[in-house]
Structure formats: C-alpha cells, structure tokens
Design goal:
single chain, AhpD-like, 9 helices, globular, peroxiredoxin activity, oxidoreductase
C-alpha cells in the first residue's frame, strides 16, 4: 500500500507523476528526450538500459514495465529476459554488452564505473555521447526506482496493465497523455 494517497487506478510511477504534476513535467521531458529523442542507440537499446538498471535495483514495477516496452520495440521477448539473466551471454552486440555493463555499474554506484568498462565500450564502437547517455539513463532510472519503491507504489492488479503501458510508452512516449488517465479507472 502506498505511503501517500495516490490514485488507485494508476500504479507505479504514473500515480506519482500525476500526484505531483508540476514536479513531474521536467522529469517527463528528460525521460522523453533520453529514451525517445534522437540517438544512435535504438529506442529498444535504451529500454534495455532502463530494464537492466531497474532489474538490478529490484524495482518490480519499473523492471516489468521497461521489459514490456523493450519487448514491444524489439518485436520479441527473448532479448530483455536474457539481458536480465546475464549481459555477457545475451543476444546483443558487444557494444550493447559494454554499455549495459556500464549501466549496471552505474546503478550499483557511479564510482563503480571503471576506466576498463569505458575502454571496453569504446573498443566496441561506443561513442562518447552513447556512454554519456547510458550513464544518464542509468542514473535517471535509479531515481525512478527509488521514487517508486521509496513511496511503496502499488503494482497493477492485472499483469496485462504492463502491455497497455508498453504500448503507451512505445506509441506516445513519456509525455503525459493530453486527456490524462481517468480512462484507466474501472
């Protein structure tokens, strides 16, 4: 049960972002830019970064939501699952393995990112902006994970909610729906 009064039809981060709309707007803008804006990393790659960080932070809501979004963007459900199990054996490029490792290290503690991890990413073809964005996405999702779990937000009553959320994230992005979220009330 959430520690503060949130809309019961809005589990996880959505309820928090609706609770404090003014504070949420810059967060939504940053997330939209990092995960859906122009990048040499695909949207699926960026969702995998969010998935790895959330998984390693043991944030059930964010892990499930971003796994669903990564799966939808990739058109399959194997890659995100394999990345959560073992980055090194996952069916992603060497560059993504290196970037996902940097994301995982960032989630543990920013100081855990080593010169060796950066050199590995660069040797695999990662650009400075890709490394920058990986660390920033990882830091952002650490924030989200702590926000969601720190206020004990509710998980959806129906696991199908994550597929609906994934469709919204893929097709609409991270901005607030213009009509709000009352349509989700049952």
């Amino acid at each position: 049960m959430p520690y503060i009064t949130l809309e019961s039809h809005l589990p996880g981060i959505t309820g928090l972002l609706e609770y404090a709309k003014e504070a949420a707007q810059p967060i939504r803008n940053l997330t939209q830019f990092l995960l859906r804006g122009p990048s040499t990393l695909s949207e699926a790659d960026r969702e995998l970064i969010a998935t790895v960080v959330s998984h390693n932070n043991q944030c059930t809501f964010c892990t499930t939501a971003h796994t669903a979004a990564a799966d939808l963007l990739a058109g399959e459900a194997e890659t995100a699952q394999k990345v959560k199990e073992n980055i090194e054996t996952a069916p992603v490029t060497e560059k993504m393995k290196a970037l996902l490792t940097i994301a995982k290290l960032t989630a543990q503690n920013g100081r855990n990112v080593t010169t060796e991890a950066i050199d590995r990413a660069k040797a695999a073809g990662a650009t400075d902006i890709e490394i920058h964005d990986t660390v920033l996405i990882a830091a952002l999702f650490c924030y989200y994970n702590r926000y969601v779990d720190g206020l004990a937000t509710a998980l959806p009553a129906d696991a199908g909610y994550y597929n609906i959320l994934a469709e919204r994230l893929v097709n609409h992005g991270y901005t607030r729906l213009p009509q709000g979220y009352d349509h989700l009330k049952k």
